Amino acid sequence: MRRTRNAKIVATLGPASSSAGTIEQLFLAGVDVFRLNFSHGSADEHRARVAAIREVENRHGRPIAVLADLQGPKLRVGSFAGGAVELAEGAGFRLQLDPIEGSARAVTLPHPEIFAALQPGAELLLDDGKLRLRVQRCDARSADTTVLVGGRLSDRKGVNVPGVVLPISALTEKDRRDLDTALELGADWVALSFVQRPEDVIEARALIRGRAGIVTKLEKPAAIERLEEVVEASDAVMVARGDLGVELPAERVPPLQKRIVRACRRRGRPVIVATQMLESMIESPVPTRAEASDVATAIYDGADAVMLSAESAAGKHPVAAVEIMNRIIGQVESDPLYRQFLEASHSPNVPGHTDVADAVCCAMRRAVALLPARAIVCCTHSGHSSLRAARERAEAPILSLTPLLSTARRVVLAWGVHSLHVPEVNSVDEITGLAGSLARREGFAQAGEHFVAIAGMPFGTPGTTNLLRIGVA
After folding, report:
1. Helix (H) or strand (E) holding 341
2. Phi, psi of 449, rounded to the nearest 5 degrees
3. Contacts of 196 (CB under 8 A, 6+ apart)
4. Fewer CB atoms inside 10 A, N or C side of the chain?
5. pLDDT of the chain, 473 residues: tens digit per residue
6. Taking a C-beta distance cutoff of 8 angstroms, is the pair 325, 295 a contact?
């Protein structure tokens, strides 16, 4: 079963989409990667969803990726006597470590790491940025603030501290338990929330030990300040525009989105654009024109994937949202301007990071354009060849062949990759024969048409892409 588009669709599962029947409908409508949001749901609920996904995978013979999204460190105020208070602009408001019954004058903030990082003049955002405070005085246990933007504040609302690197790990104790669950369930990707620095990714990598790829969610300004390092440390990246837009002015998010996509493409890291893509479809059966344009912009920029959150997890029209996103992607990719944009945005290799695989894939891209070839066939163990081929955004689709099911599932996320789980190959002639027959079988090429194959020798050794061969289907 072949998708005719290159960009991929990630859809979140939730109360509106957890039945086996709905999961299959979502897959048939166009979902390539299913996201499990570990901020919600029990381990048993996630286990049932993964079982349903794998049943669909077996029934249709197409690898499906599972993305486990960890909650990350959620910073929240305590509770109020009446459940909520009204904070007036210009009023004083105290945040303190000691537990108290909250009022319009003070509330508990049970996070010593925030007080450790605060300085007079720093600003805090409450309830997704709806309220804003400025610190006047602070110490290790409290902060006296002035309300800059007031409003209603209720129990357990979130706190953001823009411009401050907090001395906390991106992995809480809950995240570590959820990570164990996700890896036990065979998640192909693990998403890290509220990453501030590359060391957060390195810490997670030591725990995961290669059992899943790491998707770094960029939602903190501190991570943007070290963007190149964070991207280099990651296996893939998510532009998490919701939280990013809380700590930064809204007008800064669109150019940052383009900057992140470009940085990921330059280093060959798959990049997902997420949050509020078809938000109105939580209630409405059709998106706004602005939302359709938003999805299209991400595709024109060359993003590997676009993501649905509440639209598919809790919305009234989860399957319709996927169908519409699928149609938008298809329409953009059929536009002659799309290829022009991809060519114009093609980035050179990062200086000092060029290797043999880069040279092979550069030659592959040129060969595809000159022939023209109908397909790019990548024989891979680790998935590196397929991801590196996807970086080139060549004009032919990528047929990724691997004997490892875990790799077959993981590379599904990447742009243009059609993934197949196949037997081990041990010679160049086997590669050529298998590639030709599968290119015909999967509808990539007809008999007599060219394909370009890349692989690594010695065979079965990950990360050794050094062979390019042109064959005839």
Report:
1. helix 336-344
2. -90, 150
3. 165, 166, 170, 220, 222, 223
4. N
5. 689 999 999 999 999 999 999 999 999 999 999 999 999 999 999 999 999 999 999 999 999 999 999 999 989 999 999 999 999 999 999 999 999 999 999 999 999 999 999 999 999 999 989 999 999 999 999 999 999 999 999 999 999 998 888 989 999 999 999 999 999 999 999 999 999 999 999 999 999 999 999 999 999 999 999 999 999 999 999 999 988 989 899 999 999 999 999 999 999 999 999 999 999 999 999 999 999 999 999 999 999 999 999 999 999 999 999 999 999 999 999 999 999 999 988 877 666 677 898 899 999 999 999 999 999 999 999 999 999 999 999 999 999 999 999 999 999 999 999 999 999 888 888 888 999 999 999 999 999 999 999 988 887 777 778 999 999 99
6. yes
Q: Give the global pTM.
A: 0.93
Residue 118's nearest CA partner among 78, 154, 160 is 160
Cα gap 267→337, rounded to integer Å: 24
Backbone angles phi, psi at 215, to 5 degrees: -100, 115
- Active-site residues, by number, are 35, 76, 217, 275
The residues facing 145 across adjacent strands are: 93, 135
Helix (H) or strand (E) holding 343, with range, is helix 336-344
**Sign of the torsion formed by the C-alpha atoms of 243, 245, 249 and 253:** positive
The secondary structure of 371-423 as a DSSP string is: TT-S-EEEE-SSSHHHHHHHHTT-SS-EEEEES-HHHHHHGGGSTTEEEEE--
Spatial CA neighbour of 270 closest among 301, 236, 295, 294: 236
Q: Which two tokens stand for residue 432?
A: 């050529």
22 contacts: CB under 8 Å, gap ≥ 6 = 16, 318, 319
CB 425 within 8 A of CB 379: yes
Which domains does the chain possess?
A: 8-73+170-334 (3.20.20.60), 84-160 (2.40.33.10), 356-472 (3.40.1380.20)
What's the Rg (C-alpha) of the chain? 24
**Pair type for strands 131-138 and 142-149:** antiparallel
Which residues, in sequence order, are CB contacts of 385 under 8 Å at separation 6+?
357, 378, 379, 400, 454, 455, 456, 465
Report which DSSP code applies to 80: B
